[in-house]
Amino acid sequence: MSKSFSKLLAIAVAMGCTASSFASNRAGMLIGYPDAGNIDNFQEDTACRFFLKQNSDGVVIAPGEISKINAENLDYIWVHIDRLNMGCGNLPKEFSDEATVAALKQFLADGGNLLLTKQATQLVHLIGRIDAKFAPGIYGDGDGGMGTDVWTVNAQIGYWFTKEGDDMTQFYDRRNHPIYKDLRTSDAFEWETYPMEGTGDGTEMWREDHNCMWDLNAYNAVYTSEGANAVEKFEKDNNALVLGTWGHVQDHAVAGIVEFLPQDAKARGDEAKTGRIVANGLAACEWSPRQGVNAFHSNLEALTINCMNYLRKNGSATWLPIVIDSDAEEPVEVYNLQGMRIAAESLTPGLYIVRQGKESSKVLVK
User: Fold this and answer.
1) Residues 6 or more apart in contact with residue 160 via CB below 8 angstroms
2) Which of 11, 154, 319, 327 has the highest Cβ tally under 10 A?
3) Are 240 and 223 in contact (CB under 8 A)?
4) How do beta strands 359-365 and 350-356 pair?
């Protein structure tokens, strides 16, 4: 064991340091393959590996294992679908067959929560949570290409209404929502955004540009609720909150991250509520770029962990002790969530990224 790692370990023990895996089997992930070790899609495989790393006892649900889709046993289920040239409305049968859709619908009705990412956002209307007329209409699943810009998420919906003389009632600031807790921010625009994908140094990387999200202006003919703008009408019609859009968007046109709030389930009693859904269809949230190093991947991980925590019914994570490789000889480096290196001796309470060689983990100092 390196001296620096031993030193960090001593600090961790003294300060109550713990790692960022969740000690709970109440987390599930629905996959489209027979088992987690044989996922023939690098995007979905990377996401599943991350899920299992963060949820030491997480339940992986393979096709046909609908008995595992049970709100008595699971707080939430993550469904991540990210495939090339699949076509809008053509979800793989492993996710869209009648039995699976019915099980997910019942899971939500029984109070279970769902995290739906990339093309899985289409499940929101397939399970009947929203009308099909509000199905995501901004869709892309092509090969993508190289680029140098950094893709970000904007949580300040309708930012241009903050300018002098405009109507502030049409500005929706979602930055305080729990899913954005401790995310690194970007000053690429006049308004603060959250960077998710790019090298950050002007060099190129490959992005697949897979979106599956909501064009809010496209529903103008079908809204039934009154509202000052498309965001307000969409939220009222669907009992939802628009949480994020493309980084460069200042208006009310696009919803990339949406929270669908719990609904009354009167058939099961006045106090009963259905579960909630967080749906993220933004291309910026790509798990495994084919070429180039994503300097902001930690933001995607933090966003996903925040979503997991938010959808857990107890409202907070249970943390497992850090696992130490006693044979490791590489120096230990500690960074804050803004990417700044921190001396191990000067750690204060908070969340840090600890890196040794090729391995890294998040560490909570209490």
Assistant:
1) 166, 250, 251
2) 154
3) no
4) antiparallel
Please tell me the predicted confidence (pLDDT) of residue 360. Answer: 58
Please report where in the chains the tokens 């921010």 appear, as a residue: 185
3-state secondary structure 281-328: CCCCCCCCCCCCCCCCHHHHHHHHHHHHHHHCCCCCCCECCCCCCCCC
Which of helix, strand or coil describes residue 105? helix
Pull the structure tokens for residue 90: 């053509």
Q: Which of 3-17, 69-83, 256-270 has the lowest mean pLDDT?
A: 3-17
User: Above 60 in pLDDT, residue 358?
Assistant: no
The encoded tokens of residue 330 equal: 């590489």
CA triple 175-78-335, angle to 5 deg: 50
Which residues contact residue 138 at a Cβ distance below 8 angstroms, ignoring those fewer than 6 apart?
Answer: 211, 212, 213, 214, 215, 254, 281
CA within 13 Å, CB half, 9: 15
Using CA of residue 115, residue 280, residue 134, residue 32, what is the dihedral sign? negative
Structure tokens at 162: 């903050």
The CATH superfamily of 21-318 is: Class I glutamine amidotransferase (GATase) domain (3.40.50.880)
d(CA 365, CA 192) in angstroms, rounded, equals 27
| Length of the chain (residues) | 366
- β-strands 212-215, 172-173 pairing: unpaired
151 DSSP β-pair partners: 197
CA distance 80 to 95: 10
CA distance 267 to 307: 28
**Position 364 pLDDT exceeds 50:** yes
Integer Cα distance of 237 and 134 in angstroms? 9
CA 245 to chain centre: 13
DSSP letter assigned to residue 58: P
Question: Strand, coil or helix: what is 99?
Answer: helix
> Smallest Cα–Cα separation from 103: which of 174, 166, 30?
30
End-to-end CA distance of the chain: 24
Q: Delimit the CATH 3.40.50.880 region(s) of the chain.
A: 21-318
